[in-house]
Here is the input.
Amino acid sequence: MKKIFIAIVLLVFGFRTFADEGMWLPLLLGEQVYSNMVKKGLKLTKEQLYSINKASIKDAVIIFGGGCTGEIVSSEGLIFTNHHCGYEAIAAASSIQHNYLHDGFYAKSKQEEIPAQGLYADFLLKIEDVTKEVEDSAKELSGAERAAKVQAAVTAINTRYSDETKSIIAKVSALFKGNQFLVFVYQRYNDIRLVGAPPESVGKFGGDTDNWEWPRHTGDFSIFRVYMSKEGKPSNYSPDDVPLKPKYYLPVSIKGFKDGDYAMIYGYPGGTNRYETSYGVKQKIDIDNPSLVTLRDVRLKFMFGQMKKDPAVKLQLAPEYANVANYWKFYDGESKQLIKYHIYDQKKNEEEKFREWAKGKPGFENIFPEWAKAYDTWRPYSKHRVYLIEGIFGSPLIDFAAALQQAEMALVKQGGGDIKKVMEELNAERKKFLESENKISDEEIVAATTMMFYNDIDKNQHPIGFYESLKGSFGNLKEESTYKKYAAALFGSTMIFDDAKWNAFNANPDAAVLQSDPAFAHAMAFLKNWQGKYFSFYKQFVTDNNELGRLYMKGIMQMDPKKTRYPDATFTMRVSYGNVKSYSPLDAVHYDYACTMKGVLEKYVPGDYEFDLPAKLIELANKKDFGQYLDKQKNDLVVTFITTNDITGGNSGSPVLNANGELIGLAFDGNYEALSHKIAYDAMYNRTICVDIRYVLWCIDKLGGAPNIINELKLVKPTAK
Here is the structure.
């Protein structure tokens, strides 16, 4: 066991690095990786980057709301993150009378800050290696037996390291596909308040058209604050709470930078699969991604059709639309880049080398034949699963109706649950559902996705009797009008929208009443068909894929133990390093490293859904009223810039730091030419798109009129000559 652990640690420490690839654990940078950072331009010590005993940069970088990164930028707990990370909280705080999404918002005092219910900030306390404990629990087991033992060990470790009374939360992360286990211990703060956000026309400037694209001119930022009790402890919201006194906060540089300067990004990248097989790449290209893109395209079309008609509907659907749209374009681009850069062939070549090495080695030589069988068994049902998740249950109504299965189980199954408690939970969920539901667009989604399932999924996999019944009542299954009539009838008669029917059911829950509800019947036809016939195939595939992936990774380590490797992203703290850098994606095309206000004005289209701008911004920009935020090299206000840093989803809102550890921007996107980055980093074209901190400050100060926020920051200004 000791030898295995040493081999894994050597992989993290590494012997050499390639390009700017790598999402490194700051705890285990190693001398070689750290030396490379210094060669790139870093001016800080390793202890300044990460320390348990002393304040360091890691203490200023937080998990923001469970899916993004944020950073502490003042001695009073001020948080910077992306606009799209704070989007749901901004929308929740908005109304037609006070539409902060549309108009922007800046608190001029702490009393004006708005509680953001449901948001939290996790601060990393420590990381410890628990590989031996987990491995000892599983011993020589494999497959489902091993997975069960590992999960039990992980749960026990999480429980042991956590302390609910002190808001301490532990999460074990499996690295190198389950060959190493680290426990990450966090302190959680639940009192988070909205401090500021630009108008949506700034924070989402360019909309879906510019999403994942460079050049980019989006002011993607928002501002929050974390509060603690007067005793200095985490607490839920209380008007008596006071701003957090952080261990460390980031200085903010308005000195600027140039092409080639050092750039470092801290954050919580959500997930990569850099050791994916050729089978997985083919599955993505052929089935998963095209299906997801097609289904999301339909949902977006119907939502957008209603949002553009009514500001109230836009406000209502904005968070869900943004969520669906973001990865609609990503998965479309990912497939194209995987094909363009021949990633499938690259994986095949790597696997051939492994096969040669594995010959005659028990535990390794049969990995790929077994993997081929696993994919062959699962592939016929894989599209079905995507069409359920992104299609059938892409409807908010049907998704909620599926949750009513809890009530059915409580009513018909012995030990199925306390029906009174279940109904209390469902009543609360129904209230939230109705607040966010747009019936017109959702009805269109149900009609379209029901027809798409019929046309695109193997008829042998259809719910028995469902489409035959639909045909008998509503008409030809090949005609769109049939599904529209069906959806209209479903929406018109379900008790989910009818308070009188719902209240009667709530007062006297009855299985027959529930089962006769058309929305519930629709959801159950598809869900039970899946659960009864096809879920077992998926479960077995996941077990096989995970186990074979673990063994493949173990073999790769043994095949080439001196090669530098970093673990896949697992939404755990990582640091990446690189440079601010321009690039040339096509023949005769060159992209500069920075975009300026000049480009913002060039894209401006009055009244456009994606490219409109506030009148005050145009006025200030035309006057070139940029104050201390002017970039003297460009003689303009720099809005965004690009770096070679290796990031992925979850890094949204991450601090972009210069060589001295000073904040120069917020990471918010990747470029279209490198959207294969979850599976393969492209050393030539990979770029991280960042909003320049000077544009953020200008929007707060000049556009937003909130110098009180600027005054909180520790600004690092150019040295006077």
